[in-house]
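USER: Write out one fold?

ASSISTANT:
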Amino acid sequence: MEQEFSVLENKAVGRNMYINRKIRDKKAQEVADYLGISESAYTKYERGESKITVDIIQRVAEFHKVDPVSLLSSQGITFIDSGNNSPNSSGANGGYYNNVQSMTDEQTKMMLTLIQSVTSLNEKLIAVLDKLK
């Protein structure tokens, strides 16, 4: 039986590199400095314009302290941005970063309330489980 292998797409890996950088609130220049390349050379990787090597994936993963496999995921990462620097806000990339979503201040407050509720619920659950020990 033949196995099918998926080919890594520069755009998908680049998008994951971009999202990991944004999640960690890092500038492209910081990653580029770590890699020893120019910022413009690095952003070409993020846009999928340059061939991304295993070495680049490994070193970017080291910089972000993530598993390199997370950068290779074809399913991508969903990232919610305030909209200020979102690639979709300018439309210049033709929807390339289609997993980036913007949130309003009201949605941000609602998300924070939800997170606080889940955290509180988890703390209560841990307390109940500790009593059962």
